[in-house]
Write a structure and sequence with these properties.
The protein has seven helices and six strands. Helix 2 runs antiparallel to helix 3. With 249 residues, it is of the alpha+beta class. The model has no long low-confidence stretch (mean pLDDT 79). Strands 1-2-6-5-4-3 form a six-stranded antiparallel β-sheet. The relative contact order is 0.11. The protein is elongated, with a radius of gyration of 25 Å. The chain has two domains: 100 residues, no CATH class; 142 residues, no CATH class.
């Protein structure tokens, strides 16, 4: 009978332990693709509320003997539950800052970051099996920083004709980077060209050799692209290099 009474007073911390464990597992799962050290650190903070509520659960079961002690446990759980929303918001911001400083480069995270989004207008659903020298980068935007995602690889089976058939009907502009820089209507998208072929998965010495299929581009009316975005696919016929890139800031 005594154990049953103890269990009654353990229901609140028990429920919160389960809920925070589920949330913690989801947050930890979202770090997939991060480095081991980062996952370890973020994983600890993701499960910290679970650890706290589990400790309270154990204390409630074995140590609560008086009404005063049970009221203290109930009040503590209530305060912690109220603070949880702020805690998880801070966690998300800290995680985003960490990923911005250390972008995800694991190619096994590619499908999760791309599928089901506007990126599929340019990016492939999955990385082809026959390609070489694959480089992937995903960096989420935080505050004024831009969300940057890019994929690079060499596909020796690709030709300009094949690539053109894939993207000609989708593109709002097709050409080389220098052609874009010299557009008469450049002022309608000032600043967009500075991001093309610069913030992607690799460094390119022969940027002008790529034929760019610009699928989306946007600039606000600030005059210097304070808020802007672009999405493109590009192909280098000389080297069979392919780039897919998107940036929003």
């Amino acid at each position: 009978m005594k154990k049953k009474k103890n269990l009654v007073h353990c229901i609140f911390p028990l429920i919160m332990t389960i809920i925070t464990f589920i949330i913690g597992w989801w947050l930890f799962y979202m770090t997939k693709g991060d480095s081991f050290g980062m996952r370890l650190g973020l994983g600890f903070f993701a499960f910290l509320p679970t650890i706290v509520f589990f400790i309270i659960l154990v204390v409630s079961y074995f140590k609560c003997r008086t009404k005063a002690s049970k009221d203290v446990i109930l009040g503590l759980c209530s305060i912690l539950t109220f603070l949880l929303l702020s805690y998880y918001i801070c966690y998300i911001f800290i995680g985003a800052f960490a990923e911005a400083e250390h972008p995800i480069t694991d190619i096994h995270s590619y499908k999760e970051k791309v599928n089901g989004s506007r990126l599929l207008k340019a990016f492939p659903k999955e990385i082809p099996n026959n390609v070489e020298n694959i480089k992937f980068k995903y960096s989420p935007g935080v505050l004024q920083a831009g969300t940057d995602i890019s994929l690079y690889y060499v596909d020796k089976n690709m030709t300009l004709n094949k690539f053109d058939k894939l993207y000609r009907d989708k593109a709002k502009w097709i050409g080389h980077i220098n052609d874009y820089n010299n557009r008469p209507d450049k002022q309608s998208n000032p600043g967009i060209e500075s991001g093309l072929l610069l913030n992607d998965a690799a460094t390119y010495e022969n940027a002008n050799d790529y034929v760019i299929y610009l699928i989306e581009s946007y600039c606000d009316n600030s005059g210097y692209c304070n808020h802007a975005s672009f999405l493109f696919a590009a192909y280098n016929e000389k080297t069979n290099e392919i780039i897919y890139a998107s940036e929003e800031w």
